UniProtKB/TrEMBL annotation:
<feature type="domain" description="GGDEF">
    <location>
        <begin position="150"/>
        <end position="291"/>
    </location>
</feature>
<keyword id="KW-0472">Membrane</keyword>
<feature type="transmembrane region" description="Helical">
    <location>
        <begin position="12"/>
        <end position="34"/>
    </location>
</feature>
<dbReference type="Pfam" id="PF00990">
    <property type="entry name" value="GGDEF"/>
</dbReference>
<keyword id="KW-0812">Transmembrane</keyword>
<protein>
    <recommendedName>
        <fullName>EAL domain-containing protein</fullName>
    </recommendedName>
</protein>
<dbReference type="InterPro" id="IPR052155">
    <property type="entry name" value="Biofilm_reg_signaling"/>
</dbReference>
<dbReference type="Pfam" id="PF00563">
    <property type="entry name" value="EAL"/>
</dbReference>
<dbReference type="InterPro" id="IPR029787">
    <property type="entry name" value="Nucleotide_cyclase"/>
</dbReference>
<keyword id="KW-1133">Transmembrane helix</keyword>
<dbReference type="InterPro" id="IPR001633">
    <property type="entry name" value="EAL_dom"/>
</dbReference>
<dbReference type="InterPro" id="IPR035919">
    <property type="entry name" value="EAL_sf"/>
</dbReference>
<dbReference type="InterPro" id="IPR043128">
    <property type="entry name" value="Rev_trsase/Diguanyl_cyclase"/>
</dbReference>
<dbReference type="InterPro" id="IPR000160">
    <property type="entry name" value="GGDEF_dom"/>
</dbReference>
<feature type="domain" description="EAL">
    <location>
        <begin position="300"/>
        <end position="553"/>
    </location>
</feature>
Amino acid sequence: MKAGTAQKISNAILSCAAGFASFVFSLAALLYITEFDQKIVAALAAGVFCLLISYVASERPNSESARALAALSDRLLAVEDGDLVSPAPASLRRSMPKLAAAVDSLFAEVRTSIENAHSLGMYDPVTSLPNRLHFRSEADKMLSGASEGMKSAMLFVDLDRFKMVNDSLGHARGDQLLIMVANRLRVVVNAEHNGDAKTRPLLARLAGDEFTMFFSEIGSSEEIERIARRVVVAIAEPFELCAHSVEIGASIGVAISPDHGSSIEALMRAADIAMYHAKSRGGGQHFLFNAGLAAEHQEKVDTEKALTEAVQRGDFVMAFQPQMSLVTGEVCGAEALLRWNHPRDGLRMPNSFIPIAEKTGIIAEIGDWVIGEVASILGNWHRNGFRGRLAFNISPRQVDRADFFLKVRQAFADADVPLSLIELEFTESAAMEVSEAVLAEIASLRDDGARIAIDDFGTGYSNLARLRAMPLDRVKLDPSLIADIETSEKARVVVQAVIQLIKGVDCEVVAEAVETVAQADILRAMGCDTVQGFVFAEPMFEEEFVAWVGNADRGARSVA
């Protein structure tokens, strides 16, 4: 029988009993009481009795519900103290069993949701390994609980060529590969475990294709390097992925406590630095963090900070290296070269800071300064009669900005400089990777008079179809190509082939870093159009350059 129906029947019986009692009482009063005032008193007593019985019949269920709801309120307030386990109160079960069942079900769902959220927050959903948060927490405990005098070690594992798998096979296949990698790493960890739960190695996936391993107690650096080599070998074995044999590798950074840091954060930072060094050496190997690497990293950090301040202070200056035509022997232009007037180190060359500026993104601000400076300088030269072109380098980071080409046009328009006096130099890799939209913008600049060149050709990846289709005027040979042409027949054959390739796409050939007359003669015989280098003139600051151009004559400058 339903609880509500039972309650109604109970109240009906109680009301009937009250009515029957009132009837008996009234009948007795009529039969035995004869005085009028006594009859009035009896009627009042009977009425009060009926009212009392009716009140009890109506309030009985209300009082039970109130007590049950009060108990439920206390139970809900207990959640503040973390109580998600206790069942619904017994009084609630008696008076409102459905509500009690709903409360128990709600708390069960809450507990399940919390457990799922905890699992998602602490474990990687792809590999089921601990994630970064879980790893940091557990590794901290393991490091603090390590035996006194024992060393701990951190391995930072980054997969080589993993992006190629994602790009070629898709992210779903990439996730499958990550699971396979995690399983191989588990095998290594289990093999290195000595059975003691306290010293069991901790394996985690931090993000993307980055994994880490922490060993709370190791005997020596040789031991952890042996483990690192084992990981390298394990990951180097081909993976069978959906009928594809996939070969990747692993670059591993190793850091040891307390030598390289006494906290998990310090060890992770040191291992990360070592890993990037291993990757820069070609990958597929491990590298142990050391003092030299720490000093090199600190130098990079200091350079990053100093570059930001240099842009704000205007510590950069431009040097100019003339370019000579091997056909006419005349100065046909110059290249603007960036120099950093460092407040402590003095004049610094581009190779000491440009790579760092590229990585940090501050190269875009430096590039804006270069464009403005070149426009201002060319404006002055143009008004003084100099008609040679001035080339300057463009960073890939600059081209990625939507307003780059508009800024170039605006800067030279404001300085009243024709675009025919500028030459934009793109690196070989950047030229091969730019989008069709960027190519269209480059072509538009070229149509309006600007010259377009590829710098450092011969060191990167070249798509010959792109090279043929790209709006291009000149290609500059990388200095490494011409370094041995005086003494090496193979070097001459390579340079000759490259020159013919460039000529085949109807572009001029420029050789830079030409240091001897013999090199210039060989290049001219091969068909090279223009040279720049110490054999001709060193880079000069503006005042010296203007004087040099004004005072030199064709015969004095010719290396013919």
